[in-house]
Amino acid sequence: MIIRKKLSDTRWLAVTALVLVCLGCSAQTSWQSPLLRDHELVGRIWLSEQNRFISRSELISLVQQRSLLLLGEKHDNPDHHRLRLELLRAVLLPDGRSQVVLEMMERSQQVAIDTLVAGKLPSDDTTLADRLDWDTEGWPWALYGPVVKLALQRDAGIRAGNINRSEVMQIYSNSEDGEAIRGLNTEQLAQLERDIDSSHCGMLPPGQFPAMVRVQQARDKRMADALMSGIDRFDQAILLAGNYHIRHDLGVPNYLDHQLDHQISEPPLSIAFLEVDPDQTHPEAYLQRFSQQNAYDVIWFTPALRQNDYCADMRASQSQ
Predict the structure, then answer these.
(1) Residue 122 backbone dihedrals phi, psi, to 5 degrees
(2) Against a cut of 0.85, is the pTM above it?
(3) pLDDT in tens, 263-284
(4) What are phi and psi of 160, to 5 degrees?
(5) Are 129 and 139 in contact (CB under 8 A)?
(6) For the sheet containing 157-162, what is the strand order?
(7) Which stretches of 176-264 are DSSP H helices?
(8) How many C-beta atoms lie closer than 10 Å to residue 121's C-beta?
(9) Alpha carbon 229 to its chain's center
(10) Residue 255: half-sphere exposure toward Cβ, Cα within 13 Å
């Protein structure tokens, strides 16, 4: 069971206070995403269970009381990365008391992580990314590097949260692989198929749905396992992943259930960073629930990076 140590250390309280000041001022910071900045939800934080907005300081207080955190993102939105980094600066425990799991790193990269942590850390970003064998094309270091460096500065345990590409191909081609399917019921699997179809703009042959569902589940199960690995050595475990992966109804939490009762006494807190929709001004419209369960515990709203018709672009590229 995770037992949170009291944050009575004067140095740590001073750091937290400084970051809270920064968070309090971040509303004055210019948004980097250009669209819908004047939307009434932009910058606001919604607490789903209580159906109300909360302040940044309330969010910090809530997060500091929880041991298992799932922090989302839209991968290319710089505001999501900035706000999440500010949140982590306020809540990531010092002195190696936290574990951080990264969707952006594959299982095979864990050796590079462990080797880096065991030695002297490089001072420049390029060397750090190279030594981690970081996929800078898929996951731009300018967005993710600051979080990795913060985790290293706090001596956090770092775990690769994703499956390897070779595993993806094996799971995709092996219809008999049942391990990845455990965790979701029939209704959830059906919704996962619908979401996969929608995200591919209806252009994916239905015959590919089962394989893509297996891969999605395998990723989520891997992240759940990485999050709980060695959990008895830490006071806090944090997953950094895309917003879809941190959904209570369809994502990683479904693969934690069998471990929660034995190792921790509370469910994970899921915080999504979502772009606003010009046609949706009430936060409940963003909960994305297909059942009675909210996808997220907390939503932090930001402007949108782009509003191009993704499906139109995809169809155009297919027709070329």
Answers:
(1) -70, 155
(2) yes
(3) 666 889 999 999 999 999 999 9
(4) -70, 125
(5) no
(6) 52-54, 45-47, 298-302, 269-275, 68-71, 236-240, 98-106, 157-162
(7) 186-199, 209-228, 257-263
(8) 12
(9) 17
(10) 23
